[in-house]
């Protein structure tokens, strides 16, 4: 469920971003990564959207702040897959 | 407009709430205690501004109920008068929790809502205790110095988004916060101002009204001190 939430959120936001890079999305798609055109402000917009959608879909309030967000090695925001794992880890089963 | 004002139960915060309610706006306030203020356009949340889940929940509930948040006024603040040598670590942490961490949390959460709107105004309350380097107020002044730096950096981060972030540094206003300060100390402080008098709530709302005007969309990252202090 979480990967599809992320993909739908990116698709929604990309209608205003207009990034061709995000035309095809899957678990390996790089997000806040040197190879990706995503800006820090677009990452913030995605985080805000995801917190909202995750609450709507699961009823759980999460905060996607991470001290390694800007790190290229340990950031959960590197790919859709890593972000999905991170969100799943924040949710109570 | 939809306002969130922290520290709204008493002092400057309470006066700001009443000012913006009387101007026809909707205000959401918060403080650690309940308020006796009852107004159809006022909603109160009882919370500690350094409580991350509580702040996030309040902001989400506000955005859901009203569809937007136009103005955030980070007013919640505490102070103690004590030399550094006599200040316990617990007091230092408490001051930073309310004054800085509270401002940070509310600004972070409200900015997420404002980003979707592509507009918004964040106003942080600072103090002249910082530029005046007031003895006995090291922790309070340091926490507000942090707020000023935070204001200027967040203003740059949000610069392209239609959200402005500014701060106001009021001179002493006769509230509970300054009632415990000895008269001679207060007189000496006022003498350091270019204009020697206590500030008023009107002085503060005048600046906030300026910051939140639609035509002030090119003004961000500024710290405006009252009373001629710089």
Structural descriptors:
heterodimer, A: 93 residues, mainly alpha, Non-ribosomal Peptide Synthetase Peptidyl Carrier Protein, Chain A, 3 helices, 49% helix, B: 230 residues, alpha/beta, Rossmann fold, seven-stranded parallel sheet, 7 helices, 16% strand, globular
Structural class by SSE content of chain A: mainly alpha
Q: Ranges of chain B with pLDDT <50 over ≥5 residues?
A: none
The CATH H-level homologous superfamily of chain B: NAD(P)-binding Rossmann-like Domain
What is the architecture of chain B at the second tier of CATH?
3-Layer(aba) Sandwich
Taking all Cα atoms into account, the compactness measure Rg of chain A is 12 Å
Radius of gyration of chain B: 17 Å
Secondary structure topology:
The complex is a heterodimer of chains A (about 90) and B (about 230).
Chain A: H1 2-17, H2 40-58, H3 80-90
Helix pairs in contact in A: 1-2, 1-3
Chain B: E1 2-6, H1 11-22, E2 26-31, E3 42-46, H2 52-66, E4 71-74, H3 89-117, E5 120-125, H4 138-157, E6 163-169, H5 176-179, H6 183-191, H7 201-212, E7 223-225
Helix pairs in contact in B: 2-3, 3-4
How would you describe what is shown here?
The complex is a heterodimer of chains A (93) and B (230). Chain A has 93 residues and is an all-alpha fold. Helices cover 49% and strands 0% of the residues of chain A. Chain A has 3 helices and no strands. Chain A has helices at 2-17, 40-58, 80-90. In chain A, α1 packs across α2 and α1 (2-17) crosses α3 (80-90). The longest helix of chain A is centred in the middle third of the chain and has 19 residues, at 40-58. With 230 residues, chain B is of the alpha/beta class. Chain B has 7 helices and 7 strands. Chain B has helices at residues 11-22, 52-66, 89-117, 138-157, 176-179, 183-191, 201-212; strands at residues 2-6, 26-31, 42-46, 71-74, 120-125, 163-169, 223-225. In chain B, β4, α3 (89-117) and β5 (120-125) form a beta-alpha-beta unit. The radius of gyration of chain B is 17 Å and the shape is globular. The model of chain B has no long low-confidence stretch (mean pLDDT 95). Classes of the chains: A mainly alpha (93), B alpha/beta (230). The A-B interface holds A 40-41, 44-45, 47-49, 51-52, 55, 61, 63, 65 and B 52-53, 56-57, 60, 108, 111-113, 115-116, 157, 160-161.
């Amino acid at each position: 469920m979480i990967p599809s939430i992320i993909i739908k959120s990116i698709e929604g936001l990309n209608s205003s971003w207009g990034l061709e890079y995000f035309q095809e999305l899957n678990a390996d798609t790089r997000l806040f990564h040197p190879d990706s055109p995503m800006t820090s402000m677009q990452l913030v917009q995605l985080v805000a959207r995801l917190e909202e959608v995750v609450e709507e879909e699961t009823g759980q309030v999460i905060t996607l702040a991470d001290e390694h967000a800007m790190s290229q090695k340990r950031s959960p925001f590197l790919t859709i897959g890593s972000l999905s794992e991170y969100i799943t880890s924040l949710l109570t089963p | 407009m939809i306002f969130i004002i922290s520290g709204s139960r008493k002092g400057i915060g309470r006066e700001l709430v009443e000012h913006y309610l009387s101007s026809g706006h909707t205000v959401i306030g918060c403080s650690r205690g309940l308020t006796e203020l009852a107004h159809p356009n006022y909603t109160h949340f009882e919370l500690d501004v350094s409580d991350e889940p509580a702040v996030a929940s309040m902001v989400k509930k506000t955005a859901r109920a009203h569809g937007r948040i136009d103005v955030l006024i980070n007013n919640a603040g505490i102070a103690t008068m004590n030399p550094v040598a006599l200040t316990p670590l617990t007091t230092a942490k408490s001051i930073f929790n309310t004054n800085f961490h509270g401002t940070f949390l509310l600004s972070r959460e409200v900015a997420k809502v404002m980003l979707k709107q592509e507009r918004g105004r964040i106003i942080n309350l600072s103090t002249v205790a910082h530029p005046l380097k007031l003895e006995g107020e090291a922790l309070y002044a340091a926490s507000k110095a942090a707020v000023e730096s935070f204001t200027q950096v967040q203003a740059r981060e949000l610069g392209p988004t239609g959200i402005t972030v500014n701060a106001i540094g009021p001179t002493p206003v006769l509230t509970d916060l300054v009632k415990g300060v000895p008269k001679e100390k207060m007189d000496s402080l006022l003498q350091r101002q270019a204009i020697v008098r206590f500030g008023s709530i009107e002085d503060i709302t005048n600046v906030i009204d300026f910051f939140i005007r639609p035509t002030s969309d090119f003004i961000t990252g500024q710290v405006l001190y009252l009373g001629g202090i710089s």
